Each structure stands twice: as C-alpha cells, then as structure tokens.
Amino acid sequence: MKRVTGIGGVFFKAKDPKALTDWYRVHLGLKVEAWGGVAFRWADDHAHGEGVTAWNLFKQDTSHFAPSTSSFMINYRVDDLHALLAALRAEGCNVEDKVDESEYGKFGWVIDPEGNKVELWQPPSES
C-alpha cells in the first residue's frame, strides 16, 4: 500500500489572515483565488488528472488544528485514506476517529509524536 503520495496543502495561523495573504500576493506573487488561498497546480498527477497543492491561512484562534497547539498543519495526499488510517492505528499512532468525506475528497488526521496535527487527504475519484 502506498502511504503519502505528495503534499496536498500547507496551512498556518496568522494574526491577520487577510493582511498576510495580501502581503504574500503583493510581495511573493501568489495568485490568491476567490476562496482565500492559493492552488499550486502541477501536471504530473496521472491518477487524478491535474494535481494541486493548496496554501491557505487561518485565523490565529482557529480550532481546525486542535488538539495541536502548533501554528501550522501539513496536508498529505494519500491513495487510500481508510486503509492508511487502519494501518496507522495498528502501528499504535494517535489517529483521530473523525473522517470527513465530501465532494473535495476524504480527510483524516493523525497526531505526530511531537503533538502536531497532520491532515491526510484522499482526493475525490474522477467520475
């Protein structure tokens, strides 16, 4: 079973997400999309068409990274979320019970040994 196949996104907290997003747009040339983040597109993803790595800021008081107190969270792409979560549980990892499934794909979370919340993302299947 493949485990991580790429980075699906980089997310971090900011005191003022709008102002910091604007700074990245103006000074580093990030193309901020209507949903508030950036989609770095790449064409090597033959399994799902065109791949993407997201970049997005969250308010400093977000609970989305909880229970981690870290200011960032990395989202890793995976091929089979449920199989990987089962393997991680069997290996004694701290895996959250919650799994989100939507039109954006499947999302699950594991906490690393230093308390960082890691998001695992299985992109949606092509129809």
Automatic annotation (TrEMBL):
Domain called VOC: residue spans: 6-123
InterPro entries registered for this protein in UniProt: Anthracycline_SecMetBiosynth, Glyas_Bleomycin-R_OHBP_Dase, Glyoxalase_6, VOC_core
Q: Which domain of life is it from?
A: Bacteria
Fetch the Pfam families from UniProt.
Glyoxalase_6 (PF18029)
Which segments cross the bilayer? none
Q: What is this protein called?
A: VOC domain-containing protein
Native organism is: Dyella nitratireducens
